[in-house]
Amino acid sequence: MRSIYRKEINAFFSSVVGYVAVLVFLVAMGLFVWIMPDSNMLDYGYASMDQFFSIAPWLLMLLIPAITMRSFSDEFRGGTIEWLSTKPVSTLSVILGKYFAALTLVLFALVPTLVYVYSLNELAMTPHSLDAGSIIGSYAGLIFLAAGFAAIGVFCSSLTSNQVVGFLIALFACYIFYAGFEQLSRIPTFSGGVDYYLSMAGMQFHYEAMSRGVIDTRDVVYFISTIVLFAAATRLSLQSRTWDTAKA
């Protein structure tokens, strides 16, 4: 797994893909958080990171599919998936190596945003007025959310040899799992308790729960289960495609 991980990290940073993806994310986040009139924290009136944590999932929804779209698409397009399958490394190790490499790049993009916490704390009229518990919980939720999106993105990349198609499928899937269930729960047809369980099926419910500063075991289990589910789905997808290739 470590060899695959190192290979993917080197591939990200030996080309402009990794740098451009991180740069676009940080520039867009900076614009929304500090400049845009409807979302910037300076006009919010309170020393709070709520604006940042409400915008971040939507930008991650664009960033992560852009990072993961090449995970297996390049292997299929270049014909190296057969070569990779002959190496003394399990399919799961390949999946995890690519998954953790993508997640590392996402975390690398999130680290500079800690400057926002420092800046907001310095600009606040009352020193140390930020809710540290809420910020820590929100960052934890953001990391779990990014981990879930990365698992979805790697799975979607295993479905096609076209990077653009992989990106679009991952973008749609991330939206469905983040906000789709929440939107479905608001349809009047789903009432009498069904709406609550539909909402719980989506990532937004658990992310917002963690953003309150309380890290509940149920939320952690939900995200871990989502990651495991899509890792297993990726494995099945790869085994199916390599079997079809072998038959051909």
What does this protein structure show overall?
This protein is an all-alpha fold and 248 residues long. It has one domain (2-247). Helices cover 76% and strands 0% of the residues. The chain contains twelve helices and no strands. It has helices spanning 2-13, 16-35, 50-68, 73-78, 80-85, 91-110, 114-123, 132-157, 163-185, 194-200, 203-211, 217-247. Helix 2 crosses helix 6 (91-110), helix 8 packs antiparallel against helix 11 and helix 11 packs antiparallel against helix 12. The radius of gyration is 19 Å and the shape is globular. The two termini are 28 Å apart. The model is unreliable at 243-248 (pLDDT under 50).
N-to-C CA distance: 28 Å
Helix-strand pattern, N to C?
HHHHHHHHHHHH
> Any idea what the shape is?
globular
Largest sheet: none
Detail the poorly predicted runs. Answer: 243-248
Number of distinct helices: 12
Secondary structural class: mainly alpha
Task: Compute the number of strand runs.
Answer: 0
Radius of gyration: 19 Å
Give the number of domains.
1
Please report which band the strand proportion falls in: under 5%, 5-15%, 15-25%, 25-35%, 35-45% or over 45%.
under 5%
Oligomer: single chain
The average pLDDT score comes to 85
Residues in helix, %: over 70%
